[in-house]
Amino acid sequence: QNEEEKISSSSLRQRLLGTLLRPPRQDPTLPSRPYVIGLTGGTGSGKTAIAKLLGHLGAFLIDADKLGHAVYVPSGPAYEQVVAAFGAEILNEDGTINRKVLGAKVFGNQERLKSLTDIVWPEMARMVKEQIGEADAQGKAVCVLDAAVLLEAGWQDMVHEVWTAIIPEEEAVKRIMARDGLSEEAARSRLQSQMTNSQRVEQSQVVLCTLWEPDVTRKQV
């Protein structure tokens, strides 16, 4: 009997995937067009695959990762400040910022990480707003902001709905090891430095899970 209950509760939860769990944000400062979906999720959650599906359905995609790279380039808006804050030892010979060296400086150090994100996130947010304007100019009805740091950076203020991709930790560990060639320990430590699934779900309108075949993910989307 217990088993039956378990099965039914998990299948009920499964039915909630891809459905609206709480009403969209009503914020008078948000433009009515385009309708902005903030898509987030931990490493290995399948967020990128979901973004692609939304793109195929006609949404305008904003890749926060790409903007993240753009703020660091020598002509980028955060370059001077980051070099001033972290020193010339983070630079490659050609003057570009070595993100691996910079990452190692801030990893596991909350204070340093905060001083970096305080420089970088506002610049990225500005670029995101420009892109949303661009989506509007192109007449797009829906815009998807694909951003791993959406909730940490407080960018839910820029979106009508937060969509979160979740995946069980064991599966995420396997995917990260396969994708990035990391050891199990390194993959786990990367996951543990991020928000948990439940912290994300609490702040989301829609939850998606890419644990099954691509078709199941497509149905949810």
UniProtKB/TrEMBL annotation:
Please give the Gene Ontology molecular function terms for this protein: ATP binding; dephospho-CoA kinase activity
Going by the UniProt record, its keywords in alphabetical order are: ATP-binding, Nucleotide-binding
Entry-linked InterPro entries: Depp_CoAkinase, P-loop_NTPase
Q: Which residues form the signal peptide?
A: none
GO terms in the biological process aspect are:
coenzyme A biosynthetic process
Checking HAMAP family in the record gives: Dephospho_CoA_kinase (MF_00376)
The record's section on NCBIfam families has: dephospho-CoA kinase
For this entry, the protein name equals: Bifunctional coenzyme A synthase
Q: Which organism is it from?
A: Pygoscelis adeliae
> Taxonomic lineage per UniProt?
Eukaryota, Metazoa, Chordata, Craniata, Vertebrata
